[in-house]
Amino acid sequence: MKKEFKAGTIFGAVPPVMVSCGDMKNPNIITIGWTGIVNTKPPTTYISVKPERHSHDMIKKGGDFVINLTTKDLVYAADLCGVISGSKNDKAEKAGLTYEKSTHVSAPSIKESPVSIECKIKQVIKLGSHDMFLAEILAINVDDSIVNRNGKIMLDKAELVSYLHGEYFELGRNLGKFGFSVNKKRGNIRNNSDSTNKKSAIGRSGKPMESKGSGKPSSKKGTEKKNRTLSANSGKSITPTNPGSAKSKKMSKDKYSHMKNK
Ligand SMILES: Cc1cc2nc3c(=O)[nH]c(=O)nc-3n(C[C@H](O)[C@H](O)[C@H](O)COP(=O)(O)O)c2cc1C
C-alpha cells in the first residue's frame, strides 16, 4: 500500500549541474538541479531558474549558458555555487574553479568539469516560481580522460554525482544497457519487441533511437581546452572500457582536499 504525500518537488535523482553564464569578463556560476533533456533533434535541454537569482538576468541577457557536469571531486564546488550569490562573491575563486572560453557561446565553461555542454536559449517559459530556459545544445566539450581510443565518451568513468531529495550521491553500478529487457544483443531488439516497442524504441537502422550519434568527436575546430568538441548530436553511445586519467583525478582531488576539511 502507498501513502499519499502532499504534492512537492520529490523525484528520482537529478544531476546537480554547474551552469556557467555571462561572459569571460563578467562570469558567474549557478548550481541547478532542475535540468534535463527534452528533445533529440535539435538536441534541446532546459534549466529552471528563479527570477530573483543573480544569474537569472545574466542568463536572460546573455542568451546562452554552459551546463558543466558535476563529478565526485567537484561536489563541494557545486554545493558552494548553490548557496552563495554571485552578486557578492567571485564563486570560481571561492570554489577553486577556472573559467575558460567556450567554443560556440559567450558564456564561459568550467575547466575542471569533464563535460561542458554549450547551450543557446530558444525560449523562456514562465512557470511560476521558476523560469524555464529552453535551449539548443550547440556543442559538447569532453575531457580526453573520459574519451576512449575509439572516440567514445565513457561517462561512467567521470564519477558523476546525483542529487536526490536534498542530498548528493555517487552513481551505483551498471544495471544493463538500453533495450536489454527485450534482447541482450544491441541492434537486435526489433526481433523480440512488440509493435508498440518498435515504434518508440527502434530507429530505421534498427538501432535504439535514444542512442543516436557515434559518440565520436566532430571535426569542428576552436576548442581551447585539451578537450574534444563533439557535435551536438553525437554525445551518446558510451562504452565503459577506459580506466580514465589517474593523473587528472589525483590533481583534482588534491585541489579540493583543503576545502573539504573546512
Ligand atoms: C543542489 C542545488 C540545486 C539547485 N537547483 C536550483 C534550480 O534548479 N534552480 C534555481 O533557481 N536555483 C537552484 N539552486 C539554488 C541556486 O544555485 C542558489 O540560489 C545560488 O546561490 C544562486 O546564485 P546566484 O545568486 O549567483 O545566481 C540550487 C542549489 C543547490 C545547492
Question: What is the count of structural domains?
Answer: 2
Order of secondary-structure elements: EEEEHEHHEEEEEEHEH
CATH fold naming of the largest domain: Pnp Oxidase, Chain A
What overall geometry do the principal axes of the alpha carbons give?
Answer: globular
| Level-2 CATH architecture of the largest domain | Roll
Low-confidence stretches: 191-216, 218-226, 233-262
Kindly describe this structure.
With 262 residues, the protein is of the alpha+beta class. It has 2 domains: 201 residues, Electron Transport, Fmn-binding Protein, Chain A (Pnp Oxidase, Chain A, Roll); 32 residues, no CATH class. Helices cover 16% and strands 26% of the residues. The chain contains 5 helices and 12 strands. The strands form 3 sheets. Strands 1, 2, 3, 4, 5, 8, 9 and 12 form an 8-stranded antiparallel sheet that branches. It has a two-stranded antiparallel ribbon with strand order 6-7. Strand 10 and strand 11 form a beta hairpin. The chain is globular, with a radius of gyration of 19 Å. The protein starts with 16 loop residues before the first strand and ends with a helix. The C terminus is likely disordered.
